[in-house]
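Objective 1.3, modelling of assemblies. Example input:
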Amino acid sequence: MNIIAYYEGDDGIKDWLTKLIDGRAESIIFKKLPTSNLSSQFTKLPAYVADILNLDKPDIILSGTVDGIHEKPLLSIELASCTPQYQHALQRFSRMMASVTNGCPSVVILPEVKRENGEGVRTYKRSSSILYGAVRLMDIFRIPAFVFDWPNNDGLLLNESNGSQPALDSKSMIELKDFIHKAISAFNNLDYVEALWRSEGVQDRVDLTREQAYKGGAPTISNPGGGNGAGVQANLKITPTNLFLSDIGSRSKQDSKILALLPNFIRSRNESLIFRPTRLIQHAGDPYVGMIGYYDVAFCRIGKSSRDRRRNLIAHFQDVSINEVEDTMKRFNDTSCPFSSPIQVNNIEQYSYHLKHGCRETKTKPIRIYSELADILVFSDGVIFNAG
Amino acid sequence: MQDEKFSKEINLCNLLRNYLINNNSNIIQLVSPGGQANLSITYNLSSGKKKTIFPDLIAIFNNNIIIGEIKPKYSINDEAKLLSLLDSINASDKIRSLINRYLDFDTKGMPIRMTLIHGDEDVGVKKIDQLIIGKNNYWIHRI
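Predicted structure (tokens):
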């Protein structure tokens, strides 16, 4: 088989990946991931890669092809050299989720402990939330989703010589190499993901991930980071759906009339999980945009579709006006939407792409994520819901 | 446009990486667009105010510590950033401490060179070094 590696960054990644794959593929073709979903490069991506990038962008997406024409996802890899506490870990989890929900096995490489970047005095331990999220994804999708340790020495990351990637002679990277080789061996099966799922050692890794995720106490809504809850200040609560709707509906006639149109699949769920982001567009919506996926998978989702939830997932913004959505989408329509200009050589690819797909995967990221994952968005002066 | 800008910067990073490796350097951090900076320097400006930066390049090159900022073209902001490190009361101590911790050897006495890395051959700056990629991809080191 031949591997196509979509990647971001410099040649260091190419060298690292080549060593990791270690001659198990006939060839590796390297292609750059587009910097923006609005670029012409995005329109040329295979649908499954574009679908992953709709939710988030892992550092590397590997696909395989046997005939040189058709390709299918092999594995995504996220290289997360950040300090691994709750919010940082969960922003990387969204890359894993983007991959797995689109049928692509996923790996996040994240240190178990890391010293702070600057002074190096304080050491951060990895939040078990990312492992819990991985376990929940595997329970729901039956697709491998693993966290490998970025090797470290007393909290200092160990990298490849002259590179920014994890040292390949470390125990965890030797294990990753073995996992990738298993994926390559399983690839020729008609149902590749199932074949990988059943490969020797993969279930042991699933068990190990589960064991680590539950160690010290599994995450809960009141303690979403799990363990002793240190360093986690999540603003999450469960509310009866009817009470929440009546509370929001009582704010104005407009809110009440909009909520009266709520689809039955939302209204009929007895409970709702409410989380309180303080921003939508500013600072790219961080860190909330990265965390909503975890709240979904960890506490709401019971099936592969976002319809399959045991409770609603509601983003109740604090002091954010609905104008942010309206203004951002208006600006998108006026300046970025290819339909705002005549068809020309320099926009034909985007124009054609939008004729077929609309702006589902190209509009501003925070709006993309919330409209994919939240059942209801509540602002200080308005409400939007998932029409289904 | 954005892709083109990124691609120029990544190309520069690739050329720099090869140049440093071919000259027996030790690259501690080289951040290209889309990459994550792992190491930062927190220091006090001459005004006393605290500042943190994530340098694009931290390397040992020709027995010098190089702290570099990379852009395809000369950047006045990058120059100001490096000058602020140079003027700081404690940045050099912080840089040494970071590298000592990372490489496990003492860099005492090893000069620290703040270095602008770009592709504008005609730019002259004072106080800091420049590593310039000239036409035909030859590197020019201006001290």
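Strands of chain B lie at 26-30, 41-44, 50-53, 57-61, 64-70, 112-118, 129-133, 139-142.
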